[in-house]
């Protein structure tokens, strides 16, 4: 493993910053303290700072030489609305808020890289350090783009990374093409006619209609979609009724739809609406169908993925750069990749053996209340970012 000595020397101080961020988690578009911390660190290191894109986003600008070329590296900075079960000293101080996905660690890796890049500037061009808010459902990437990210800071490509529990420390995983699914949600309200539970013939019961829809939606996956195409329809909430002896007026179903392509998403949305409307009619009910498209699929570009593989192989060895099996989770780095080329990759977070005394029960998995980022990744991730920036902007 070829780690940069100056980054190793700063590892403890950067880990301290990471733990400070972990102890003070902030939700999407509320990352004021986190943004202040990032901006102060960058400024202290002599890095130009631009603030306000996506409300709480921070962009650091590191220039050197005369080239007009530029590359971007992104870290997400927001936390999740959940309560931490850990009790170590850097556990969340805010009830109902937690860095359970490692964005504190992603931020720390990019800060470590920023400090080295500012000191050494072994490149010709500009490195844009993009600290993005509101990845967890807020679409912060989309909002930064709307606020002019690529107009103010034109870049040839952008790279980002996510820690990945279960992947060994010292390994990276990446693949070209779709790696994360689109994220979409639906709300279906089935309307009937209320009645006494003992006299159902006097009402129109929306519950059987809703139950039929839940089953029928799965035939869209198995009978309308091509078997080689990927898609998920999950009904995750059903709300109805107030008393055991009352036929309810309505039944509300909500859930998520995931696909790797817009074409499959179009199909699933259309068929879900048709099934909902016709099933409701068959049961003498009416239906309101709502479908919201949140994040598009994250699709890595071929050339940039191959570039990243080559750089990472030099850092950890080719055997430790492995293919990434696509996941049906979602990631708003997808918005960046719709605008410019780039690659999103995974860095191994291990199996959780790094966690200190005071952690909660359970595995060290993403979105788990006992999660904690592995600080051993900070020098490795920072080294990877520095080497990518240097290689991309190598003098020609």
TrEMBL record:
<dbReference type="InterPro" id="IPR036264">
    <property type="entry name" value="Bact_exopeptidase_dim_dom"/>
</dbReference>
<dbReference type="Pfam" id="PF01546">
    <property type="entry name" value="Peptidase_M20"/>
</dbReference>
<dbReference type="InterPro" id="IPR017439">
    <property type="entry name" value="Amidohydrolase"/>
</dbReference>
<keyword id="KW-0378">Hydrolase</keyword>
<feature type="domain" description="Peptidase M20 dimerisation">
    <location>
        <begin position="185"/>
        <end position="281"/>
    </location>
</feature>
<dbReference type="InterPro" id="IPR002933">
    <property type="entry name" value="Peptidase_M20"/>
</dbReference>
<dbReference type="InterPro" id="IPR011650">
    <property type="entry name" value="Peptidase_M20_dimer"/>
</dbReference>
<protein>
    <submittedName>
        <fullName>M20 family metallopeptidase</fullName>
    </submittedName>
</protein>
<dbReference type="Pfam" id="PF07687">
    <property type="entry name" value="M20_dimer"/>
</dbReference>
């Amino acid at each position: 493993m070829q780690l940069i000595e100056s980054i190793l020397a700063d590892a403890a101080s950067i880990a301290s910053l990471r733990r400070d961020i972990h102890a003070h988690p902030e939700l999407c578009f509320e990352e004021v303290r986190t943004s202040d911390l990032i901006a102060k660190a960058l400024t202290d290191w002599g890095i130009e700072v631009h603030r306000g894109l996506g409300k709480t986003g921070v962009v650091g600008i590191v220039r050197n030489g005369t080239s007009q070329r530029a590359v971007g590296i992104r870290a997400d900075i927001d936390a999740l609305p959940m309560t931490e079960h850990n009790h170590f000293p850097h556990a969340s101080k805010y009830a109902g808020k937690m860095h359970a996905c490692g964005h504190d660690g992603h931020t720390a890796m990019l800060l470590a890289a920023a400090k080295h890049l500012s000191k050494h500037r072994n490149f010709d061009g500009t490195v844009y350090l993009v600290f993005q808010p509101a990845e967890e459902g807020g679409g912060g990437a989309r909002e930064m783009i709307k606020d002019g990210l690529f107009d103010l800071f034109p870049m040839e490509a952008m790279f980002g990374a996510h820690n990945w529990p279960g992947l060994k420390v010292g390994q990276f995983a990446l693949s070209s093409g779709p790696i994360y699914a689109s994220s979409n949600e639906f709300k279906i309200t089935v309307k009937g006619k209320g009645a006494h539970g003992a006299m159902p013939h006097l009402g129109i019961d929306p519950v059987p209609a809703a139950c039929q829809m839940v089953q029928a939606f799965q035939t869209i996956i198995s009978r309308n979609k091509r078997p080689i195409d990927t898609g998920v329809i999950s009904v995750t909430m059903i709300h109805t009724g107030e008393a055991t002896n009352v036929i309810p007026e309505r039944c509300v179903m909500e859930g998520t739809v995931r696909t790797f392509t817009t074409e499959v998403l179009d199909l699933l949305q259309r068929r879900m609406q048709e099934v909902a409307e016709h099933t409701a009619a068959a049961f003498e009910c009416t239906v309101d169908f709502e479908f919201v498209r949140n994040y598009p699929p994250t699709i890595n570009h071929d050339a940039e993925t191959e570039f990243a593989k080559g750089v990472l192989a030099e850092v950890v060895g080719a055997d430790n750069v492995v293919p990434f099996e696509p996941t049906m989770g979602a990631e708003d780095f997808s918005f960046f990749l719709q605008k410019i080329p780039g690659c999103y990759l995974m860095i191994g977070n291990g199996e959780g053996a790094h966690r200190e005394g005071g952690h909660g029960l359970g595995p060290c998995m993403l979105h788990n209340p006992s999660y904690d980022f592995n600080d051993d990744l900070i020098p490795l991730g920072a080294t990877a970012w520095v080497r990518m920036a240097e290689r991309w902007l190598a003098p020609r």
